[in-house]
Amino acid sequence: MRLRHRDGQTVHLSYCTNVHPAEDFAGIVDVNLKGCFLFVRGVAPGMKKAGSGRIVTISSRAGLATSLTGIQAYASAKHGQVGLVKQLAQELGPFGITVNSVAPGFMATSPDYERQWNSYSEEFRRSFADRIAMRRMGRPEDIADAVLFLASDRASWITGQILPVTGSPLA
Question: What pLDDT is attached to residue 107?
Fold first, then answer.
């Protein structure tokens, strides 16, 4: 895209490369951000009435940094989910409700993630765990344990936080 200013100077602008169709973008955002919003909208009234509650979403490391997926919609939706969690924590805190999120690192635990994993070179897959401080891939139990903690009474004064469960510090 080119824009010409009044002074005659031409400015070149670019947007995203490797952009997915708008329908794909909207679908990914609907699942990952709107789905989170609708979930909270469904459970918050009962928690407000009860005067307490724990909401724990699953975001992603892609919501805290750049994404290995290279899918702009996914990273955008997960960044949006991080903002939503923080805003909801502020709004629902006065009702005794905590709102937090667990942000897993990459794990080949679903067909989509397995396809992504298999698309990487043999060398990349062989060396991936060596780039993780804990020197291993994450397991579903790692995520479940973090969720259980944030849903417990031990986390009653933790709200609006995103807990990275990545096996490494975030850079």
Answer: 85
Tokens of 21: 């169709």
Closest to 96 in 3D by CA, of 55, 48, 62:
48
Choosing from 15, 74, 113, 120, the catalytic residue is: 74
pLDDT at 58: 96
- What backbone torsions phi and psi does residue 44 show, to the nearest 5 degrees? -60, -40
Please, what sign has the CA dihedral across residues 72, 73, 78, 79? Answer: positive
* DSSP conformational letter for 110: S
| 3-class secondary structure, 6 | coil
Best CA proximity match to 38, nearest among 16, 12, 57, 18: 57
59-93 per-position pLDDT tens digit = 999 999 888 767 899 999 999 999 999 999 999 99
Run of H or E including 29: helix 22-29
CA distances 89 to 79, 148, 154, Å, are 16, 18, 17
Q: Whole-number mean pLDDT of the chain?
A: 88
Q: Which residues pair with 163 in a beta bridge?
A: 102
- Domains of the chain (ranges; CATH) run 2-165 (3.40.50.720)
C-alpha distance from residue 48 to each of 35, 52, 122 (Å): 20, 6, 50
* pTM, two decimal places: 0.84
Q: Is 113 noted as a catalytic residue in this protein?
A: no
